[in-house]
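Practice problem 4.
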């Protein structure tokens, strides 16, 4: 797909501790140094790019062409299994050996794993330095790069170590979406479906009715999805920075989604794919609780599957339910579970039982087995 140029869209995310722009446009990486100088009022010390070899192979020429003096590049292998403290320590050691100081700037060039690790590294190196998110996957552009959540996984669960540390800005270059493998694009779109289900019925309806254009990579359609998804997250985070209430709704589908990732060793499914299955299970719980009608549940599930195929995996429902207790959203031993309330609204329940989850997980697994591989 050829690189595109498009109008610049900007969404401002404002919280008590930070305010910054999320810029969505094609060609942002071509003018990166100029944009960074504006963000830092011209005070650029050493710049470090944290990325994977694969992403750097695709975008190094574009990024480097905008700099008079090349930044230092630090590499991290791709994949969720590298989202660990050992990776953070290795990167921090490299920063120290390269002379990084409090005025240094980190650039997170990549998907969700790169963004989460770089943000966490920026939060703890010398007790906090600046960073900018340069998300290259759809999932990162619509979700993980926004809102200041950073962190890494433990064997016991996902994102159990982390910090809130906001970037100076998020620069989402939509040209990078053209290089995504189809599975990565589809996985990212599951997060956008989630945004529609929980907050924006208009976005959900657009995705429901325009799947062909969106899945074909149509620039206008994708930009509309990215922009609407960003607005949802920015609005929610602006109202609840530290996930004390409203921000929990962004975890629709994630309770069982994270359990699926853990049960499969973070190797079988992309994050968005696990969220897709988790969202189906959450829809079943919502249906049985009467917060969605059968028609609404059918629409949600059929739209999720429309943006598949979601990979099959092997796990017992009992194991998935047990793993939900390792979720970081558990409060005082009570599991926070996000229910769909129609399409475009949600409610948070702390009384969803193991039995309810077990029934929904089994229904989800039965549906999975019925799908064409």
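Answer key:
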């Amino acid at each position: 797909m050829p690189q595109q140029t498009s109008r610049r869209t900007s969404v401002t995310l404002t919280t008590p501790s930070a305010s910054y722009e999320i810029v969505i446009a094609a060609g942002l990486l071509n003018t990166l140094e100029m944009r960074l100088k504006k963000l830092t009022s011209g005070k650029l010390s050493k710049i470090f790019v944290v990325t994977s070899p694969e992403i750097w192979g695709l975008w190094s020429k574009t990024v480097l062409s905008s700099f008079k003096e090349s930044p230092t590049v630090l590499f991290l292998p791709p994949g969720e299994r590298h989202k660990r403290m050992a990776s953070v320590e290795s990167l921090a050691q490299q920063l120290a050996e390269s002379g990084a100081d409090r005025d240094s700037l980190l650039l997170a060039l990549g998907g969700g794993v790169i963004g989460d690790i770089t943000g966490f590294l920026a939060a703890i190196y010398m007790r906090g330095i600046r960073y900018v998110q340069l998300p290259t996957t759809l999932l990162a552009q619509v979700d993980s790069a926004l809102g200041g959540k950073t962190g890494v996984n433990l064997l016991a669960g996902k994102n159990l170590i982390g910090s809130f540390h906001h970037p100076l800005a998020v620069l989402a270059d939509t040209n990078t979406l053209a290089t995504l493998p189809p599975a990565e694009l589809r996985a990212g779109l599951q997060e956008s479906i989630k945004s529609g289900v929980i907050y924006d019925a208009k976005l959900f309806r657009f995705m429901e009715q325009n799947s062909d254009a969106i899945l074909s990579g149509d620039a206008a359609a994708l930009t509309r999805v990215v922009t609407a998804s960003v607005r949802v997250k920015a609005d929610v985070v602006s109202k609840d920075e530290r996930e004390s209430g409203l921000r929990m709704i962004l975890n629709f589908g994630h309770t069982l989604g994270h359990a699926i990732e853990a049960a499969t060793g973070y190797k079988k499914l992309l994050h968005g794919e696990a969220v897709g299955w988790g969202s189906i299970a959450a829809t079943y719980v919502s249906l049985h609780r009467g917060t969605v009608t059968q028609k609404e549940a059918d629409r949600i599930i059929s739209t999720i599957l429309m943006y598949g195929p979601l990979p099959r995996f092997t796990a017992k429902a009992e194991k998935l339910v047990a793993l939900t207790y390792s979720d970081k959203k558990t409060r005082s031993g009570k599991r926070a579970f996000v229910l769909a309330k129609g399409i475009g609204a949600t409610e948070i329940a702390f009384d969803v039982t193991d039995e309810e989850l077990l029934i929904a997980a089994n229904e989800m697994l039965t549906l999975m087995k019925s799908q064409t591989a």
